[in-house]
Predict the structure.
Amino acid sequence: MAKTDTLHFILLGAPGAGKGTQAAYLNENWGLTHISTGDILRAEVRAGSALGNEAKSYMESGKLVPDQLIIDMMEEKLKTLDKGYILDGFPRTVAQAEALGEMLTRINHKLDAVVNIEVGDDELIRRLTGRRVCPKCNSVFHIYTMKPKVEGICDNCGGELIQRKDDQIDAITTRLVAFKDQTQPLIEYYQSSGKLVTVDGTIGVPAVAEKIRAALTGE
Ligand code: AMP
């Protein structure tokens, strides 16, 4: 198998397309560091930091956090990494993509690919409204497809599962609109650089991961 643990790539896709699930799977199987801007921001909100306090209301309503906050946060993060990584949820706007390009040049990291995971709107809504998370250990469950052993209780730590505020229908609608207006233009942006690979996100987690692996390694 071609070497995968030094790759740097972006997972692009609507909320609910499975970016986080794929990144966790690829992290476990390939040893790539998973960097999720959503997870970093949620930790900042929990910690009550200045960044978290600024980001909170945007996140809860499903809007994007202002570009400059995200760009500064990511520059700090990326320069600490010396092996391969998967960017999940960043960039999400053309301004972020341009800033990412500049920061990668500054820190001498090469972007290998941008993987676009495609899933239709009805399936996205089904996935997002059914998602439940454990606020204590961050485990993710689903009321249809990944039920916990005891309803409402985390299998891993016994915590009480909750629905994220932004997985409620009003916020989901806002998130899907933000995706279409602000993030979808990135598909064209990266297509023109020849780095874009599109995979069908509805074929099951291992099959999607295999498609990503094959696309990235050229096997
Ligand atoms: P996620 O878990 O990736 O869906 O992110 C949850 C929320 O965090 C999003 O709805 C945004 O409010 C915020 N967020 C995450 N990543 C970004 C980003 N790259 N740019 C702006 N906002 C972001």
Observations:
- The chain has a mean pLDDT of 93.
- The first helix runs from residue 19 to 30.
- The chain is about 50% helix and 15% strand.
- Residues 15, 37-38, 41, 58-59, 62-65, 70, 89-90, 92, 96, 166, 175 surround adenosine monophosphate (CB under 6 Å).
